[in-house]
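Researcher: We're teaching a course module on how sequence relates to structure. For the next exercise, students receive a sequence and then see the predicted structure as C-alpha cells, so they can try to spot secondary structure elements on their own. Here is the exercise chain.
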Amino acid sequence: MTEEKRAVGRPPRIEKRQIVDVARRIIQAEGVGALSMRRVAKEVGATPMALYHHVRDKDELLMLTLSGMAETFERPPLPEHPRDRVLATAVHMHAILSEVDWVVDVLSLGDLTDKGALWMPEEIIDSAIACGLSPEAAIHAYRTIWYVVHGALVFRRADARRAADPARKPFFPALITPDDAGELPRLSALAGRWEEVTGDYDVAAQLAAVVDGLLGPTRAQQG
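Model: And here is the predicted structure for the students to work with:
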C-alpha cells in the first residue's frame, strides 16, 4: 500500500529531448516571444524547478532548439573558385533556413546559433580572404551577406502571413496616389506593377550582385 502511494505521488519523469521538442513546437506555432520556462514546464507536466535540472535557463533552451538542425541538411558540393564558394554557401544558407524558418526567430536574438552550422560563416570568411579581403573585411562581408539572407527570410514570412489573411488590404503601394507623381515619380510609375515585380525577386541573383559588390568585379567584368 505504501509503495502504491509512493508511485502515485512520484512526479512525472521528463527527458531533455522532450523539453526541447516542446520548446521547438511553441516557437514554430507562436514565435520566440511565447517561449518561457514556465510554459514549457506546464506542457511537459512538470514544475519549472524540474526543468532547471535539465536546462540552465531560457537561453540554453533556445540553443538546444537549434542544436543539430544544420546536420539534418546535406552539405552541398562547392565549386572550386573561392568567389563562387562564397555565393554557393550564401544561397545554401538561405535555402535551408527557408525550410525551417522558425529558426530565424531564434537567430535574430544575435548570439545564439547551432555549432553544426558554423561551417557556413567559416567558408564564406575563408573564401573571401582567398579573394583578397583582409580578415576584418571578410567578417564584414559575411555579416552583410547574413543581413541580406535574414532580411529576405523575414519578408518572406511577412508575405506568408499577409497571404493567409486575404481580407487585409496592403497599405503599400496603395497609399501612393497620382498626386505623388511630382515628388515620387519612380514609385508612382511602378506602383501598379509593384506586386508583379517584387514577386519575381530572385534571392540567388541578388546575392550574386551583393557578392560582386563585396569582392569587386570579376576579371571578365573588368574586361
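Model: If you want an answer key for the exercise: Residues 135-163 form the longest helix (29 residues). The radius of gyration is 24 Å.
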